[in-house]
Design brief:
7% of the residues lie in helices and 48% in strands. By secondary structure, the chain is mainly β. The strands form nine sheets. A four-stranded mixed β-sheet has the order 5-12-11-8, with no helix packed on it. It has a four-stranded antiparallel β-sheet with strand order 13-15-18-17, with no helix packed on it. A four-stranded mixed β-sheet has the order 14-20-19-16, with no helix packed on it. The two termini are 77 Å apart.
């Protein structure tokens, strides 16, 4: 018996993994018959395929992406700065599959953006989810975008003038260089002269005596200022004018009339509004709305002078009936 290797036309031997080895069997002459030569390639090729099939399938499984890992999986970045991310494709056994290029995505896009190389840039305070997709398999990372340092503090008072014994509320907003408001930024208040007016750390200002004062709100290394005048209280009597009843959801406008000690009218007295109960609210301009039925007492205060008005609120009812104009079942959609 003789085994010979098949040859390509060029004369070079074919690699065994192509299963081109031929088995040549010389059959011995018998009974005076001639010599017969049989080339059996098919059998040998089939045996070679079966022998190498496990290795071939293992390679295919290793090349199939089962998961995508992003590093870092969780991180934080300050708005306006960048962070480099990387994505690795892995097979079912957790082995790295080299040579795979991910497609990058990020949401929401106004919080952060990312380029084709995985370079993420934070834009504003918030949480961003980053996706790297390889062969249809996604990897996910969570990036917290921290706010920039405050660049300015915007300070507003409900009234530019209060009376002795009166009060007003300050509103302070810290903003970045991009004018983005900084939610939760710590703000400290102070008065330039507490003999004229004091301010607590919730922003409530109280007039102590006539004069002018500078109120300051500080956040980090920046601050905002405004000037507030404290005047003598000319109001001797104060009355609140408004409707006696309403329904839930109605917006009522309350006003005041004020007189001095000589019974002369005081125009536009600076007052502070308040309302009893938790089911209603009133704005600094006297706009009132109730969400729950009940009787509420609306109070206007100017210094140590107050006036009140009661309003009864009933629940709003909808008397209109719905008319059916057509009918369609889910099976007809």
């Amino acid at each position: 018996m003789q085994i010979a290797e098949c040859r390509m036309p060029s004369g070079e031997g074919v690699h065994p993994t192509r299963f081109q080895l031929c088995l040549t069997a010389a059959m011995v002459r018998s009974g005076g018959g001639g010599v017969g030569i049989s080339t059996i390639c098919t059998l040998h090729s089939a045996l070679g395929i079966l022998f190498l099939l496990p290795t071939f399938l293992a390679g295919q499984l290793r090349a199939q992406v089962s998961s995508v890992e992003i590093k870092p999986a969780r991180a934080s970045v300050i708005a306006g700065t960048s962070l480099q991310l990387s994505a690795t494709a892995r097979d079912a056994a957790g082995r790295e599959i080299p040579g795979k290029t991910p497609n990058w995505f990020v949401a929401p896009f106004d919080v952060a953006s990312i380029d084709a190389k995985g370079n993420l840039r934070g834009h504003r305070q918030g949480k961003a989810q980053v996706f790297a997709v390889i062969d249809g398999k996604p990897g996910i990372a969570v990036i917290e975008v921290e706010p920039k340092e405050p660049a300015t503090v915007e300070l507003i008072a409900a009234h530019s003038e209060i009376v002795v014994g009166g009060s007003t509320i300050l509103t302070a907003v810290a903003r970045t260089e991009d004018k983005e408001p900084l939610a939760g930024a710590p703000i400290a208040f102070r008065s330039s002269d507490e003999r004229v007016a004091t301010v607590d750390q919730t922003g409530v200002v109280t007039g102590r005596r006539t004069g002018s004062v500078i109120l300051v709100a500080t956040s980090g290394s920046v601050r905002g200022e405004l000037r507030l005048a404290v005047a003598q209280n000319r109001v001797a009597t104060l009355s609140v004018i408004g409707p006696p009843q309403a329904r839930t959801g109605d917006v009522l406008r309350f006003k005041v009339t004020a007189e001095d000690r000589r019974n002369l009218p005081v125009a536009d007295p600076p007052v502070r509004w308040s309302v009893s109960g938790r089911g209603a609210a009133i704005e600094p301009d006297g706009a009132f709305v109730a969400e729950e039925p009940g009787t509420y007492v609306v109070t206007a205060t100017a210094g140590n002078i107050s006036g009140s008005h009661a309003v009864r609120v009933t629940r709003r009812t909808h008397s209109r009936r719905l008319e059916s104009v057509s009918h369609i079942g889910f099976g007809e959609l």
